[in-house]
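Pilot study result, target chain (495 residues):
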Amino acid sequence: MENIDLIRTCNTMRSGFQEWGDTLAYSLDKKLKMVGQLERYGGQYIEGNWPFSIPVLSNDLIESGFLMAILLFLTIFIMPLFSRELRQNKQILIGYVFVIGLHQIMAFTNACIYQTLMARNDARGFHIFARELARNEGWNFDFSIGQEFYIDILTTVYRWFGSSHLLGEQLSILAFALSCIVFLKILRQLEAGRYRLFALLAFGAYPTMIVYGSITVRESYEVFFFMLTVYFGIKMAGKGGANLYLIALILSALAAGFFHQALIFYMVFLVLLFLAWTFLPITRLKSIKKLSLVAWIIIPFFLVGIIIFLNMKMLDLRPANRGVFSTLIDVNWLEAISNYRVESIKNSGRTAYGVYLDITSSYMMVYSGLKLYVYYLFAPFPWNIGSLTDLYASTESIMRMILIYFSVKQWRKAYGSQRRLLGLMLILYFSITFMWALGTTNYGTAMRHHMLSWWIIVIIGIPPLMEKLGRFLFRSIVNSSSHRLEVTSENLDRN
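Predicted structure:
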């Protein structure tokens, strides 16, 4: 009888959260084994008048986590008192307050007035589910990976301080605020201090960052721990050997991996890359020609190795415990990615760009792989615009294209250790975007994934872009002044 009730409960919840997606529905089924009394919550929150809410007037909010949310709100604004990166420059301080203010406006709007489109579905589901789990005595933190891990974090906070939609949003903004500090630290490490204010604004006032960095989703945490991993990797490489930064690198990479399954594999690659960058002698070559020669030798072998790895069927070392890691070593990855894209395109709706991975031949695999990567980076194209959302997404893509161009240009202009470091950053950008491209079939999802890599091309590309704009504006002013002088001279001659 209990099994029947459990199945009925799971089915009810699955129906109520249909728009939330099948992946999270799996997580619900797993968690519901510990929460047998959720049947009465089935779909009432989804079917209600969710876009509109005035939770400030709710006793439930006031008595639960609202006060903690306000405390976090104040803490985020006074963080410059504890950060040298934020308080040492007045312009940077003003820029930080400005971008945080934009995030807070979005958070309070979603929590207290009206839920924007992006704040529904995932964000709403995460909050609701964490709130109900926090009320259940049988729940426990089980260190699952991905969405469940994020739900467990929200649940833990809600149990300690009370549940509040605004509290969950303030946690996301806190992660973003910490990202701003790490962002400025990486700027200093890359000797890219010029135009820091413009870089900070481009990073923090980026509309997608404002929207997703202020609601109850995982992206803010992923961005923070990814940036933190890169920062510790740069510091370790700068020291030129094993040190405490190596431990910090591994711990931050581990934290990033907990928030998304795909990041587990990428973080392994990232740690190995920084270890190679630190300890292998090729990265210390002072001759750019020699370094380029080494790159041309290594890159083909690297690409061939990837193809072989993706095509081969490895032995299952953990047949009794099929988790993320056993799945990794017991799958034909090319076939799995291809099949996943087929199913994902069917369910992606209007924003799907419909590019399949063709694995029928090596030529088609390379062609379709490059095509899906280009679409991931730059879709929707101007000729695909059919709505205001498409227009914004296309504008974002054009800006991304410009920053990629100026980032590569800046790398080519640099020399010595800075050139090698900028090259490393570009490797990170193109590798993580290619990873996301393999599993992304619509530009709506792509916009969220771009948040993780946006800061890289901002750091590298903003300085040369601003210099170009400055020279253009200066020439315009000079030409205008020259024209006025010519007109004045003509008048004097006539007189």
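One observation from the pilot: Residues 451-494 form the longest helix (44 residues). A full batch analysis is planned for the follow-on phase.
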